């Protein structure tokens, strides 16, 4: 991850990565077909870690639904803004490159895992807080908006609107999950 943070994915060279970690190039290719596959393996590990942490956070939270949902949004925002994988994708503009290089099967598996996670979060929110509007699709849509804004953080900050946009999005996140579409 240190190497990708310095160079990005496109500019990274397998030989340099191998030299950084002290392995032979042949050893690299015994585990990964490409530098993009290595990057995605790192991204997948971090994604699974974040999902475990988010679920643990939700299960440990106490309080009323709006307060818990607000803290959940803040937790996800902190993870999104601070994650080194997302920083490489965001700051170095690697998303289009990765979408071209990563196999459709890998992308489909990530989507499947995301859908499953959202179903689990939805089930928890609905059972614990009786929030029928906290369905998996709505959660996915709201989180996609948050991620889209976070990936464009630099542009929002240049306009001086990032924090205000995120605050508004937080309010919308909580209201939509508590009150439903009428919010």
Can you describe what's shown?
This protein has 183 residues and is mostly helical. It has a single domain (34-179), classed as Tetracycline Repressor, domain 2. It has 11 helices and no strands. The longest helix is centred in the N-terminal third of the chain and has 26 residues, at 35-60. The model has no long low-confidence stretch (mean pLDDT 94).
Question: TL;DR?
Answer:
This protein is mainly alpha-helical.
Give a topology summary.
Blueprint: H1 2-7, H2 14-21, H3 25-31, H4 35-60, H5 65-82, H6 84-91, H7 95-101, H8 104-129, H9 136-151, H10 153-158, H11 162-179
Helix pairs in contact: 4-5, 4-8, 5-11, 8-9, 9-11
Name of the top-level CATH class: Mainly Alpha
Q: How many helices does DSSP assign?
A: 11
Characterize the largest beta sheet: strand count, sense, and whether it forms a barrel.
Answer: none
Radius of gyration over C-alpha positions, nearest whole angstrom: 18 Å
Query: What does the average pLDDT come to?
Result: 94
List keywords for this structure.
0% strand, 183 residues, elongated, Tetracycline Repressor, domain 2, mainly alpha
